[in-house]
Amino acid sequence: MKYLLTLLILTALDLGTKYWALQQLHTPWIFTSFFQFTFSTNCGIAFGFFSSCTMNGQILLATSALMICIYLIKHHTHSTCSSMASTMIISGAIGNVISRVLHQAVIDFISLHYQSYYWPTFNLADIFICLGTLTLLLCQKIKN
């Protein structure tokens, strides 16, 4: 039950920040010389890789996310570490799939850069997916 609540909170936080970005980020919010909020959309997977804005591409990405979620649920272990990691990955996947359905792309807004070197713009769902994946790998390493 606590993982379901965590999943709902993380998904709501992701969707809420995407909605905020859609409504408020008409111009970039610059915080430091390397960190800003800038509205962008992304038809690809995490960090804009493998971009595909076609309907078939969007369906393929959404189906892939769903299959990963099913795999994580089906191969769930009862360790707290892997459960929390899976919860983060699934909440990020759900947030990005909902964004794809509503906007035909994922809304991104977090921008990191150094001088002329820019990391692809991302969102909280991408952070949850990356942190969840790293945590899952760490859980496996600790287990072995």
Task: Give me the secondary-structure topology.
Layout: H1 2-24, E1 29-30, E2 35-42, H2 55-74, H3 80-103, E3 106-114, E4 117-118, H4 124-143
Antiparallel strand pairs: 1-2, 2-3, 3-4
Strand order of the largest sheet: 1-2-3-4
Radius of gyration: 16 Å
Q: Mean of the pLDDT scores? A: 85
Shape: globular
Structural class: alpha+beta
User: How many E-type strands?
Assistant: 4
Give an overview in words.
The chain is an alpha+beta fold and 144 residues long. It has one domain (2-23, 36-143). The chain has 4 helices and 4 strands. It has helices spanning 2-24, 55-74, 80-103, 124-143; strands at 29-30, 35-42, 106-114, 117-118. It has a 4-stranded antiparallel β-sheet. Strand 1 and strand 2 (35-42) form a beta hairpin. The model has no long low-confidence stretch (mean pLDDT 85).
What labels would you give this structure?
alpha+beta; 4 helices; 15% strand; 144 residues; four-stranded antiparallel β-sheet
Condensed summary:
With 144 residues, this protein is an alpha+beta fold. The protein is 60% helix and 15% strand.
